[in-house]
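Field notebook, page 425. I keep forgetting to write these up properly, so this time I am using the form the group agreed on. The chain and the ligand, uracil, are recorded exactly as supplied. Prediction of the bound pose follows.
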Amino acid sequence: MRTVDLIQKKRDGFSLTSEEIKWLIDGYVSGEVPDYQMAAWAMAVYFKGMTTQETKDLTMAMVATGEQIDLSAIPGVKTDKHSTGGVGDKVTLILAPLVASFGVPVAKMSGRGLGHTGGTLDKLESISGYQIERSQEEFIQQVQTIGLSVVGQSDKLVKADKLLYALRDVTATVDIIPLIASSVMSKKIASGADAILLDVTVGEGAFMKTLEEAEQLASTMVALGNEVGRKTVAVITDMSQPVGQAIGNRLEVLEALEIMQGKGRPDVTAFICELAQIMLSLAGKEETLETIKQYLVSGKALAKFEEMVVAQGGDLTDLYRPSSAAFVTDVTADENGFIEELPALEFGLFAMRLGAGRAVKTDSLDYESGIVFAKKVGDSINKGETIAKIYSNQKLSENLLTEFKKNVKIGLTESQPKEIIKIIS
Ligand code: URA
């Protein structure tokens, strides 16, 4: 086989066979297929797409390029959850211990944030001492003992994705459904869980800008998971505004703790309960939303979260420490009305400039900085009232403040945004 022929075949709109895809992926991982040819192939996929069979073949070829975690030593239905990326998305911090508090094991490998989107690992690492690197044995043993572990993805898993994702990132080939679906699902399949909840975000702050695209990605991933015997459900969730109130690592941990103490905004609390209900049902446990809320606000999920923090070396006294950012700047409203728009993308980028996120992979983070919104879309606001507090370690310039305010749209429309837009199973 020759790589150039496979690129040409795809460029001309034909489907590659399972053997051809496997040959290409194996060759890329072994270094025989160079970056420039893989980039040309990815661009051909961008324009010509892939069939369902090709996407499945690609996913399984990717899975085979690394270790696969065997969770069979853990009794019960092992669950996992994945988000396609969001702003202020601290859902895993709450959902994982909440589900685990019902006795359903959660074994989760998470990623870091890049660009305007955050990553669970960075949030957990803002807790002093928290170890995200665990051997496979330690990971499995922790889930056996306390029913929950959130760790960084092992370097040995899906080697093809590491190479391919880095390549796609610099060749404008990230936002293409078969490549996103195979990237996400190869990692989920290799991570070993029996049941997977996928959170497919949609809106300006997400990869998928339209509901139609999000539905297509969700259906592709659900089919991939189910075909290989993993019970998979996807929820399409709104990413037109940030999730909850906080953006920024420590600030999001603090918001998660508040939610688990029953002090969160009712909308985020309800959203997380709905996700937990789906995840529990995937594991064969049917629970009412009232019961789930009770577990969430009564401290059961929080106790499980603390257990995980301790098990992974985190310092419980540091956990509850407020942000140590040197400056806290109040942003107030100039008029009365309702919050109509809080664009997730713009505020994700703003938080990144404060140091809460990385522009490039090698950037270091300022865990303490970020934004806490006092108001969300649909809330009423009066002139002079706080819209948000900005936490930073450098004094904010007037220009930056003006920019922040420009992105908050206040008007006369009182809307009721919905977090979960659709469930695909
Ligand atoms: N998240 C992933 O893991 N892979 C993609 O391709 C996009 C989002």
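OBSERVATIONS:
- Residues 84-85, 165, 174, 179-180, 183-184 surround uracil (CB under 6 Å).
- The chain has three domains: 3-49, 79-318, 327-411.
FOLLOW-UP: compare against the apo run.
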